[in-house]
Amino acid sequence: MQGSIQRVRDVIQGRLPDCPPLFDLLRNDAVINHFTGRTLTVENAPQAVFAAYEPAIDATRASVRLPKHEATRTLPDGRQQRDFRWTTWSQPVRYADAEAYAAAKRNLLDAYDPGWTAEKQARVDRWLADLADCRRRLGEVFYFPSSRGVNLTATYHEVGIEQFSYYLADCPGIIDELLERNTRIAEAWIAHLPDGHGVEAVFLADDLAFKTGLFMSPVWLGEHYFPRLARVIAAWHAKGAKMLFHSDGNLMAVLDRLVACGIDGLNPIEVNAGMDVGEIHRRHPKLWMAGGIDLSHLLPYGTPQEVAQTVRRTLEAAEGRIMIGSSAELQNSVPLANFLAMRDAVLSYRY
Asked: Is the omega angle on the peptide bond into residue 63 within 30 degrees of 0, that is, cis?
């Protein structure tokens, strides 16, 4: 949309835009078909998906995913991986016991070389080249590329949150070392971005919560996660980039701590889990948000009128500190009429 990039820049720099930006990931066939005028297929997806973003929304984040043919495959380690149209699911890795897990991770830790190499710099350069290509294909859309980070989610997702909780009790030192390794890799990677890298803001995802509360205790997060998150954010700030932090679930118990770590923006504001746009804004008026419109019930099952009314209430509560979008990503469960109602309510709103 015309003026999208400047609109987003205004929000992340603390200024009021001409109208609120619209932020989302497009993983919805009907929306893509509507804005491209053609039927989305796996074959035309590399062109059609990117072409839908510019006329539809103002901002998006990693990753701009393409649809796939549904299939099931066996991975080299014997696990099953299943591709759906817009998502992929893999079986978790299974270790014989905590000792086997600890031994495997000790091998990984021992292999870590903190030195900077030409190969590592080449990865940074490829990331910048991929970023430039994605921006080119998106056109007048502000893009938040993905940042390396503490990688707590990747660490527990490998084995599943239930099994991870046992390993956290049985071999906590190994997990702490893994998170420290991840953090040092991120810090070094960011530090070696060249001058003129052109990154204005990045997206860092680590899911910390269910709808009902945190995965780990605030005490554990305070000791093992938040200090490392703060280091990654400080590294980006030193490079002149803002940080949009993503976590599903109810984060209200650690909202103040996240802000103290230095996050500039918060996503996706899962309102059905208890996240409250108005309260977040009152407690931290400089923090900007991205999302805030319920994807669990409202967008899939509400009426266009209900969607529009909720968007207006959310915009009023945030007082210019939000980029409106779904509280996850725009899935096929959302009718086209409801997306258009959200979009029209945003476009017609003036501060």
From this structure: yes
DSSP 36: H
Helix (H) or strand (E) holding 292: strand 288-293
Contacts of 75 (CB under 8 A, 6+ apart): 81, 90
Give the span between the Cα atoms of 341 and 181, in whole angstroms. Answer: 45
CA angle, residues 319, 297, 63, in degrees to nearest 5: 70
Task: At 286, list the tokens.
Answer: 């400089």
Q: What is the mean pLDDT of residues 294-305?
A: 98
CA neighbours within 13 Å on the CB side: how many for 26? 32
Asked if pLDDT for residue 299 goes beyond 90, the answer is: yes
CA distance 185 to 148: 8
**In whole angstroms, what separates CA 11 from the centre of its chain?**
18
Domain range for residue 235?
Answer: 4-347
> Could you tell me the CA-to-CA distances from 12 to 68, 73, 159 in Å, in that order?
34, 42, 36
Hey, what are 1's tokens?
Answer: 């949309």
Structural domains in the chain (count): 1
Closest of 277, 274, 250, 253 to residue 265, by C-alpha: 277
Q: CA angle 146-293-83, nearest 5°?
A: 50
Whichever domain contains 46, its CATH number is 3.20.20.210
Could you report the per-residue pLDDT of 169-182, keeping only the tens digit for each?
A: 999 999 999 999 99
